[in-house]
Amino acid sequence: MADKPTSKLNPSPPVRTEFSFDPIENALQAYKDGEFLVVMDDESRENEGDLIIAGCHSTTEKMAWMIRHTSGIICISLPGERLAELEISMMVPEKNQDRHRTANTVSVDYKHGTTTGISAHDRSLAALALSCPTTLPSDFTRPGHLLPLRARPGGVLTRRGHTETAVDLCRLTGLPEAGVLCELVNDLDDDIQGGMMRRDQCRQFADKWGLKMISVEILAELRKKNEQTE
Known about the structure:
The structure is a single chain. The chain is an alpha/beta fold. It has a single domain (24-91, 100-228), classed as DHBP synthase. Helix content is 31%, strand content 17%. It has helices spanning 24-32, 60-69, 80-85, 120-131, 162-172, 199-209, 216-228; strands at 37-40, 49-54, 75-79, 108-110, 140-151, 179-183, 212-215. Strands 4-5-3-6-2-1-7 form a seven-stranded mixed β-sheet, sandwiched between helices. Helix 2 crosses helix 4.
């Protein structure tokens, strides 16, 4: 089951003569329906593709599949005000030395129905709990094995990061604002160095699994267009 996310291997992946992203409308519907998206950031930034799924749609099977095909360092992006409500503090309160100023908090585990916190089952429960508006600070232990990230106010219009993308995708689809994300990596059978998937490799992966693929920039352009007409 760990090899089957929301859709099975695509028996007839498209034959592409040139690279293209999927229509943003189709991607948003897939996200709302509980599917993973493959999201690229700019080639001049990290040039990485992340798997992103709404935290409220997390399951053990989806989490296990995500862990298998990514770095395994699973994060969940939330607005700063929700992190404050849950009393989840920043990992580095001052002098963040990360190149892109990724806003990592302390890691957490969900207290109830879990064991060590590292399994796909336990991390999925933590993601679901962080997506639930009634969850309390006392429902978590710190440190843990799921890594919350603080999305900046303004989302991708303020910072073109996967962190902000994950929350914006939830907001645009009417889902609780908590998006699970992790970087796609090459299988060691394909890349003995264990490197990151780049754009074309991410496209092949998305086609192989029948997933929609967009970019952070596409989402930012959609937001600018929508908010200019409001």
